[in-house]
Amino acid sequence: MHSGSGPASQLRLGLPFAQMTPFNEGAGSRQHRARVAGLSADPNVANTVYVRCAANPDFVLRLQYGVILRRAMPVVPAPRFQRTNVGSGRVLLSVTNLTPGLTNELLQTTNLSSGAWQTHTTFQSLGVVSEVSDPLATNQERSFYRLRVR
Fold it and tell me: Phi and psi at residue 6, in whole multiples of 5°?
């Protein structure tokens, strides 16, 4: 086994098999263990470890390790329809997980197979939850809705 760290563009195929460090545990078995020292914690560095087997030293397994930085902002779930009410000649859709200030499009179709979605309305949410209404059409048996965030 050989380990090395450096920018990904400077990687090479490791050392010849005879110069590699053997695993600490597992010689002669299918399970091996080793502790690799000297890996960089710099998020701009790709740490590379090369693994070869005595039974087939021409095969090289290349493993890359790096530091994963945490996001400064939490990941917001995708907008979704929280509640739907039908009454007084209208469909009232309550949409949640919206990002205030972004423009949203409520799309509508009467036939999912057609793939023809029409923009019903465009709105900017002032909060995380918004309500949008659609007058019930007397000539439509059903309507389907989806939301697109711009």
Answer: 160, 170
Instruction: For the chain, give every domain's residue range.
Output: 2-65, 80-149
Q: Do the beta carbons of residue 62 and residue 48 sit within 8 Å?
A: yes
Whether the predicted pLDDT of 12 surpasses 50: no
**Helix, strand, or coil (residue 44):** coil
The CATH T-level fold of domain 80-149 is: Immunoglobulin-like (2.60.40)
CB atoms within 10 A of CB 79: 21
- Whether 39 and 65 have beta carbons less than 8 Å apart is answered as yes
CB 119 within 8 A of CB 106: yes
Question: What is the helix (H) or strand (E) element at residue 59, kind and residue range?
Answer: strand 56-65
pLDDT per residue as tens digits for the range 36-58: 777 888 877 778 887 777 777 77
Residue 14: pLDDT band (50, 70, 90) is: low
